[in-house]
Amino acid sequence: MERISAAGNLTIEMLPGLWRLLTDNGEQSHTIVEAVAGQPLVFTELFANKRRLPEDGKLPTQFIQQVVLGWSNDDEAWHLGLVFDPELSRMRGSRWCELARWPDPDTTVFYTLANQAGRNLALALSRPFNLLQPEIKPKAAPSQPLPTLPLKLDQWKLDQVDDEAARKKRLAAELGRAKAMPPTLRLHRSGSWVRTKLVRAVWYGLLAAAYLGLSVLSLQGTLALPTPDFLPYIGLGAGVLFILFALYQVAQVLLTANNLLIDADEPGVALRRGRRERWRLNRDSIQAVYISQVVNRRGRKITVRHGEINLLLHDGTFRRLLEQPQPGYENPLPLDGEPEEGVTPLTQADVHTLLQAAALYIAITLNAPCYNDLRVK
What we know:
Elements: E1 2-6, E2 10-15, E3 18-24, E4 29-36, E5 41-43, H1 45-51, E6 58-59, E7 64-72, E8 77-84, H2 86-92, E9 96-103, H3 111-125, E10 129-132, E11 151-153, E12 156-160, H4 164-174, E13 185-189, H5 191-220, H6 231-255, E14 259-262, E15 269-273, E16 276-281, E17 286-298, E18 301-313, E19 318-324, E20 328-334, E21 342-345, H7 354-366, E22 370-376
């Protein structure tokens, strides 16, 4: 007699024309299901009650359509059972009746034993045997390391905070006093953004001085009046406008919030100017991180024309973290086929640009899903 073990302290005994399912309570074994060629399927009262089968413990084989062995993705196990005809299924409320199972994440360890048990049961019952093979999962794209911090993102720079509080957190995690947390990230205005604004302010100042100087000298008679004679007044207006433009550039440098802190704990996400906080989002209010990109195709590559990173909140609204309005020629996206528009989960294997890497870093720190919203122009 051949014996096969199954999950739940079950054992299957098999001979030609005989199939038994036994349970072992540690002291002795009890037969709970028995199939003998040419006879009804026999089972215990307890088995009948749990499976909603006839209370007399006998089931004629004509009520059994087939014996099925299949692998389930849900619990990663092989399941052996019976499929009943419609009449009995209506009485029970289900067509399926499980007899035994074998946990098998690899799908191959218990395949032979489970297959043998299923085929022998089908022979004893004289019913068809149906084997449901595992679905072949597509191989995941090979993972690639994220670009190391800091990341330069046009007008912004993403790096890791290394202050006293961050060092204490890391030390507590290393000593086992606290749970290890992702590092606190800081998204701040780059030095090139400040220099660009100041250079523009200087140029606007020089233009204002030139327009005002020429206009004043013309009105004083030092220079000959141009024709028509109202041009000096237009020059005065242009000079005043350039002064306002210069002041606006300086005001942006002095007043625009320049630090965005991203922390898994506190403050969550906070926008600051120096020590002054402009706004804050608690981690519990954040649902996901979205990176939106507008691209166009150039040969076998597409170029990012516009990009931005937003937070999706639980109330359905979005909060923008940063915007990259300039074309990203230095970071083309290599694609094998046509770029597909839509929203897809962003994983490490899908990262092709620094902006995508930044979004994934932020999502990892916040322990939130990250989605890539691609639009083709």
